[in-house]
Amino acid sequence: MSDTRRRVKVYTLNEDRQWDDRGTGHVSSTFVERLNGISLLVRAESDGSLLLESKISPNTAYQKQQDTLIVWSEADNYDLALSFQEKAGCDEIWEKICQVQGKDPALDITQDPIDESEEERFEEIPETSHLVELPPCELSRLEEIADLVTSVLSSPIRREKLALALMSEGYIKKLLGLFRVCEDLDNREGLHHLYEIVRGVLFLNKAALFEVMFSDDCIMDVVGCLEYDPALVQPKRHREFLTKTAKFKEVIPITDSELRQKIHQTYRVQYIQDIILPTPSVFEENFLSTLNSFIFFNKVEIVSMLQEDEKFLTEVFAQLTDEATEDSKRRELVNFVKEFCAFSQTLQPQNRDAFFKTLANLGILPALEIVMGMDDLQVRAAATDIFSYLVEFSPSMVREFVMQEPQQTDDDVLLINVVIKQMICDSDPELGGAVQQMGLLRTLIDPENMLASTNKTEKTEFLSFFYKYCMHVLTAPLLANTAHDKNSKDPQEGSTKINLVCPGALRFMRRIIGLKDEYYNRYIIKGNLFEPVINALLDNGTRYNLLNSAIIELFEFIKVEDIKSLIAHIVDNFYKALESIEYVQTFKGLKGRYEQEKDRQSQRLNRYRRDARSLDEDEELWFNDDDDDDDGEAVEKRMEDDFSDSYGKYMEAKRGKLHCHYCIWLPTHCYILTALVGLVDYPDDEDDDEDEEDEEEEQTPRKRPRLNS
């Protein structure tokens, strides 16, 4: 029992005025010789490590908030808070603090904070003026009360004294009683004064006052006072919105009355902060820090209470995936889970981890697989938002789930394929949903955030899965748009017509090669993908246009970066068709690189034969590299076997005369390729005059040999 009573979470306030969770443990108060005084100690419940060691200073101002919080500052801009699981434990530690400081435990604050500018004035205040003297709570004194409240905001000491006075005399409830009287009498002047009073009391920034003002029997009157802003011609109707328009829907009945009350309170206080209160000035911006903390701890408590109620969440997911659930009910359930996930964003990382792991254990991903495929646009949009929270939390968790799906379902209903299809078929003219889904897909297939370990390589496994089960879905629109394009001859020009997909295909290939990833390079070689590129270069003739420059730049990049596997493939298979191109030195340079590498390999082999037992370090690295390549090819064997046989059959049928179905002719003035980087400049371009160009047009368009097998 004592362990539960003393169980606490330790929080510190960061620079952004947000509470950071430092861990969960058990608190005690004991004498620490090193600190020479009674101190608060918190030891982590996980490993017993020390989370907090704080001496109870006689001059530190401690505050008790919401019955289960103790907040204090140990130094400038370093605020601490203990959040107790039980009120009894909070009361025990609070009594100990008050005992050390010689204060009455009935108070919610042990010290009046003093700023340096007021120290001298504070010393002159006689002890008899411990509290600010409040005027009688009467209609005729409302203006006087309003003036008093607004006048103390610039003085920290007077703010503290006014807060104590308001609490000690039950003044808040009396003021709210006057509000009801003024509203019945339509006393606009009195209502305007009450607006100033309530707004000022909120700016006192005291949790004890918030507990009274935001209680069930007071909060709607507080909202009512804030409707009568003197700057407005007509009052706002916030109460009407909160009671009639904003309906609280229990998608699954909440049996815990405390949880239900906490949800109502948090929504209304958040509404006061975000909608009702005007944007604070620079002077006022720190006056509502305690209100932020009030909302924050409420949300933490709500998420914790819901998370611990496994029966409630199990029922939510059961109804969410039940085919018999009505569409309107399912829409409410999805929106609830979305709000639940949004609330979790207020949690600290370790608490957020536990939250999403709970959802994962309850089957959030299988549920999303079902609801994201439904026709209801609202349900799909909310489900996509939930999915984005999960992907942001742990891409690896999502990948692990989708890789297990093929064992249980067809390719068409895989979760990741559902996302791809919705991205492709987004009906929004502005493609808002498609952009969101594109970002999620990019996160999932980004190799940079994939985990690698000695026993498991996520990158290899997931990318292999993606190419096998998902790539055909992603590329389907591209293939559908190009399937009807065939090589055809223009009888007037006797030349092959342009296929407008050529620029996109060339740019795509350049980007892949730019990655310098042997994983992709081996697939380029496997698919013989340089053949259509070289055919396009030869078909372009001697025209020095953007297509020519882009292709030359591609090969120049391979030469400069010395990508050995691609250089060997190009020279071995295509050099005879390229050796006649002499207006640039790119292809001769590729041949030179190829010969240099062959010489190095030969020298290494000769050294090995001379003394096979005395391998030097370079030779060992060389053999290790070869082993790595063999291992890599073994890992990829399954994926390579899945490569479509149709391409190989097509290439066999075209061996006599090669034509690329998707990369034929490009007009001289084609601006779609202007996005290509590093276009090649030719030093002899300036020597070509218009006469030479005219002469070229009269000749056959093919000035270089056609690539033949």
TrEMBL record:
Domain Serine/threonine-protein phosphatase 4 regulatory subunit 3-like central residues, every copy: 144-500, 504-596
Coiled coil as UniProt keyword: yes
Ranges in a coiled coil: 591-618
Ranges of biased composition (kind: Acidic residues): 620-633, 683-698
Entry keyword annotation includes Coiled coil: yes
Organism domain of life: Eukaryota
GO cellular component terms listed in the entry, alphabetical order: nucleoplasm; protein phosphatase 4 complex
Gene Ontology BP terms: DNA damage response
UniProt keyword list: Coiled coil
Segments of this protein annotated with the region Disordered: 620-639, 683-709
Pfam families in UniProt: EVH1_PP4R3, PP4R3
Single GO MF descriptor: protein phosphatase activator activity
Residues covered by the PP4R3 EVH1-like domain: 5-101
Family membership noted in the UniProt record: Belongs to the SMEK family.
Function recorded in the entry: Regulatory subunit of serine/threonine-protein phosphatase 4.
Protein name in UniProt: Serine/threonine-protein phosphatase 4 regulatory subunit 3
Name of the coding gene: ppp4r3b
